[in-house]
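ugh ok fine here u go
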Amino acid sequence: MPRSETAEIRALAAAGETGHAGEKLRALITRLFALPAENLMINADPYSLNSLNGFFESGTEKFFFKFHQEENEEAMSGEYYRAGILAAAGLPVDMPLHVSTQPGEQILVYRRRDDPRFADILSRLDTVSDPALHEAARAAERGLADRIFETYSRTLHPVTPAQSAAEPIHRLFHHRLTDPATGTFPGGRYAGFYIGGNFAFPGLELAWQELKTLRFIINGIEYRDTLESLFVEAAAALHPAALAGAGGVVAHGDAHNANVWFQRRGGVEDALALFDPAFAGAHIPTLLAEVKATFHNIFAHPFWLYDPQAATAQFCAAASRRGDRLHVETDWRLSRIREDLLAIKAAHIWRPLLRLLRARALLPPDWRRTVNLALFLCPPLVMNLRAGMGGHTPASSAIGFAAAIMAGSEPSEPDIFSDFLDRIDPG
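structure:
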C-alpha cells in the first residue's frame, strides 16, 4: 500500500527536507480546508516523535497545525480527532477550527495562540531554579488533575470487550506489539525496532538474542523480568479485551505535556488546556487512561527520551555483562519538578481513581501488574531506544532500557516505580 500524504510529509521533514515537506503540506491544507496556506513553518520539535506541528498564515489570520501520523495508518479508518468528546465531558480542551479525519490525511488546525506548551515550561524548570514559576506549574497541574479525576469519576462505566477494542488508544500499546496485517505477536514496532537488532551501551555491545534473556541489575537493585518476558506478558495483559474488566472513562489518552497549553492569566491562577486528542475516547480502558501522561510527563525526564544528547552530557551511564545479568549504573534521576508532578498525579488522580474502581467493583486484582506493564511499554514503543536510532547514544540507550525495566519489573528492593505504585495503592 502506498504511503499517505502525511506519512510522506513527516518522512521528508525527518530527513531534513523541510522545504519540500512544507510545499506538500501547503498543498494538502489548501485542498482539505480550502484555506490557502502562506508562510508555513514546520517546527523542529523534540517532543513530536510521531507527529508534526507548526504555523501558517492565511490572509490576515494566523494558525497552528498538528498531525499525528502512525505507520500503517493508511489502512485504518475512524474519527481519531475527537475533541468534542472531551469538551462535552467538561475537560479543558482547545477546540480546533478545522479538522480532517480521513486516514492518512488527519490534520488539526487551531487558531494560533501565544501560550507556551506546558512541556516547555517544565523543561526550563528541570534545569533552572525559578520558585515562582515552579509553584505556578504545580498549581496548574493540581488544577488539571482535579478536573481530570472529576471527569473520570462522572464518566466511569462498565465497557464491553468490543467497546474497549474500538478505542484508538490501543494503537499506542497493544497494536505496536503486533503485526498490523495479521494481529499476530510479535510484530509492529516491537519486532521492527528490536528483534534481530544490535545494541550498544557504554563499554558493551549485545545482539538481541543475548540481550533479550538477561536480567537487569540497576544501581545494585535486581529486577525479576527480562526484556523479552515483559514484552510477551504485556502482549497478553494489555490486549484490548483483557482491559475491559476495569471499565472505561472519557479521557484524552495521550496528554503528554507537549499536548497541553500553559495559560498565563496574570494574577489569576494559571491553567492548563489539552489539545491534539488523537487518541481520545468515551470508553478508554480506565487503567490505561493516565499511563502515557504519567510516564511521558515524569519518568521520561529530564532529557533522556526527548533530548538524548543533553542526557549524555548531564548523566553518567555504564553497562557490563556478568553471566546472565546486565549491570547498569547511572546517576540519572528525576528533577524536583518531576517529583512534584508525580506526587500530584498519585494523590489527585491515581489513588482516588483506584479507590473508585474498588468501590464500583471494577478493580482487577492484578491492577498493579497491568499498570507496570503499560508503563513499561511507553519508552521502547514510542521510539527506537537503540543507540544510533532517534539520536540515542549508548548512554541514553542504557538509561532508557533501564527505565523501561524499572517501570515493568518487580525490584529486589524499593525503587521510584515501586514507590509510586505503593503510593497509589487504594488500601
